[in-house]
């Protein structure tokens, strides 16, 4: 769970309960730890020396599981991105205890008070992490980016690198980064705009203590350094996806666009926050103008991300184009192997095809098994995220029982009306006979129970006039 920060510790007991309820792993079995310690001492033997390249990492200040480092150079009008990825495949052997445990977990799971990592810290936060305390084995993908932001995989190799610096999003200076870092990110954004990509990067939610008592959900705006850094990963993943597709192999991320029902629900959510969304403007057009520093627009960005079907993994299939609607492109995951099991196999397949070798049978077999494993891990992560947000809402509203809140109905089904509070980033269900999407309600808070991660409302009466149609804002799921 990477979209909620609990600086005040208000969620501590509830988070402990959530960990217990969802059986979030606490540590690793002894055989896995033994295997990790042994693997951490494995000496690289198939790696070229690239320690002369000025690689750096850019992550949250406290991160120690560093998947990526980068260096950038000019090649005429083009830019060459040398994107180094933690060489997890060098340390983890198929069938060993670490591998078997990783297949059980699928991904790292995140909560505001810490994570349950995919691999033991001896690997994920030490030997395989691209920390600046010594040489590390890595896989370097070299990606060419032209002036229009088009990407192409130029090569892939196992190499030894040495990171020059561990840079942090909140303190990095332009002088710390490669001279063309901003230019590369701008080119990728230009290509996204031309494709009509609809990638939404909402800010993190925080549980903030209020000076008069109680708590509120707030938003930490996404920093420009985070956005630019994400463009580098995107460039590599797009180039890798194209290479895999051309060689008729691979594992891809696919996601359909929100359907018409979801878009109409988003319009009602936008209306609840008083955001102006012209009827003739599409969701893609509207979301490009959203400002994450505005709390209501930030909340709506979260709503967009949760509006459609979740992204899924699919293996290559003859005659099928794997398409990611938000990216408006064929897309793959390869740049976070310390945190996602699937990336390890995509990296191995890409290494093979970039060097004229057959894709290993182990990777091809994994591509068939991984969609189910990754879906289960994502489902667990989604349940954890939902429970954490429910907990945060209950903590925020505790003590306000009896208050009346304006709301608007965004959807109705057999479970009742789903409503969006107009002044808070909270979505909940309420019994409201005869309610229809777009109706205004006044609802009374009956209970806010952090122990059960639940809030309960009752409809008071149908509110009078709502402001004219607007657009964009919302919050959690359900």
Summarize the structure in words.
- With 478 residues, the chain is an alpha+beta fold.
- It has two domains: 4-254 and 311-396, no CATH class; 257-308 and 399-478, OB fold (Dihydrolipoamide Acetyltransferase, E2P), CATH 2.40.50.140.
- It is built from twelve helices and 19 strands.
- The strands form six sheets. It has a five-stranded mixed beta sheet with strand order 2-9-8-5-4. A five-stranded antiparallel beta sheet has the order 17-16-15-18-19.
- Strand 8 and strand 9 form a beta hairpin.
- Helix 2 runs parallel beside helix 5 (121-127).
- The longest helix has 37 residues, at 361-397.
Secondary structure blueprint with pairings:
Layout: E1 4-5, H1 12-21, H2 30-40, E2 48-49, E3 57-59, E4 68-75, E5 78-86, H3 88-91, H4 97-105, E6 109-111, E7 114-116, H5 121-127, E8 136-145, E9 151-161, E10 166-168, H6 181-195, E11 204-209, E12 215-220, H7 224-246, E13 251-254, H8 260-272, H9 283-287, H10 295-305, E14 312-315, H11 341-354, H12 361-397, E15 404-413, E16 416-421, E17 427-430, E18 440-449, E19 454-462
Helix pairs in contact: 1-12, 2-5, 6-7, 11-12
Shape: globular
Work out the strand percent.
15-25%
Uncertain residue segments: 464-478
Radius of gyration: 23 Å
The termini sit apart by: 16 Å
Report the count of strand segments. 19
Counting helices, strands and paired strands, the structural category is alpha+beta
Q: Major sheet: size, sense and barrel closure?
A: 5 strands, mixed
> What is the percent of helical residues?
25-40%
User: What strand order characterises the main sheet?
Assistant: 2-9-8-5-4
Q: Counting H and I runs of at least 4 residues, what is the number of helices?
A: 12
Number of spatially distinct domains: 2
Mean pLDDT: 89
Organism: Sphingobium jiangsuense
GO biological process, one term: mRNA catabolic process
Domain RNB: 47-356
GO molecular function, one term: RNA nuclease activity
């Amino acid at each position: 769970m990477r979209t909620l920060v609990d600086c005040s510790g208000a969620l501590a007991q509830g988070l402990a309960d959530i960990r217990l309820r969802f059986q979030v792993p606490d540590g690793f079995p002894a055989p896995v730890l033994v295997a990790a310690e042994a693997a951490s001492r494995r000496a690289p033997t198939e790696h070229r020396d690239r320690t002369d390249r000025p690689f750096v990492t850019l992550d949250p200040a406290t991160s120690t599981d560093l998947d990526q480092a980068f260096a950038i150079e000019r090649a005429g009008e083009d830019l060459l991105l040398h994107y180094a990825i933690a060489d997890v495949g060098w340390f983890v052997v198929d069938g060993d205890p670490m591998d078997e445990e990783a297949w059980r977990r699928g991904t790292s799971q995140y909560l505001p008070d810490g994570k349950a990592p995919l691999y033991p810290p001896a690997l994920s936060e030490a030997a395989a992490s691209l920390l600046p305390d010594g040489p590390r084995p890595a896989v370097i993908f070299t990606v060419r980016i032209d002036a229009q932001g088009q990407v192409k995989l130029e090569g892939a190799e196992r190499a030894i690198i040495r990171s020059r610096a561990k840079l942090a999003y909140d303190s990095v200076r332009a002088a710390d980064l490669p001279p063309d870092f901003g230019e590369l990110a701008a080119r990728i954004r230009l290509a996204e705009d031309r494709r009509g990509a609809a990638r939404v990067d909402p800010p993190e939610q925080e549980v903030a203590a209020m000076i008069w008592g109680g708590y509120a959900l707030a938003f930490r705006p996404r920093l420009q350094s985070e956005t630019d850094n994400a463009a580098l990963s995107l460039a590599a993943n797009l180039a890798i996806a194209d290479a895999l597709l051309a060689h008729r192999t691979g594992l891809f991320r696919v996601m359909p666009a929100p359907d018409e029902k979801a878009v109409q629900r988003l319009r009602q959510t936008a209306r609840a926050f008083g955001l102006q969304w012209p009827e003739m403007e599409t969701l893609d057009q509207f979301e490009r103008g959203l400002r994450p520093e505005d709390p209501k627009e930030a909340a709506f960005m979260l709503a967009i991300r949760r509006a459609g079907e979740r992204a899924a993994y699919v293996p290559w299939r003859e005659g099928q184009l794997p398409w990611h609607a938000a990216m408006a492109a064929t897309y793959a995951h390869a740049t976070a192997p310390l945190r996602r099991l699937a990336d390890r196999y995509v990296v191995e397949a890409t290494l093979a095809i970039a060097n004229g070798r057959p894709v290993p049978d182990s990777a091809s077999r994994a591509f068939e098994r991984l969609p189910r494993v990754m879906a289960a891990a994502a489902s667990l992560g989604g349940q954890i995220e939902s429970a954490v947000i429910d907990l945060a809402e209950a903590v925020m509203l505790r003590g306000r029982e009896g208050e009346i809140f304006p709301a608007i109905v965004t959807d109705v089904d057999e479970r009742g009306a789903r409503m969006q509070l107009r002044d808070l980033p909270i979505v909940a269900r309420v019994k409201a006979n005869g309610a229809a999407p777009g109706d205004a309600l006044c609802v009374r808070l009956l209970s806010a129970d952090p122990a059960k991660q639940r809030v309960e409302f009752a409809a008071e009466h149908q509110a009078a006039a709502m402001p004219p149609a607007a657009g964009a804002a919302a919050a959690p799921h359900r």
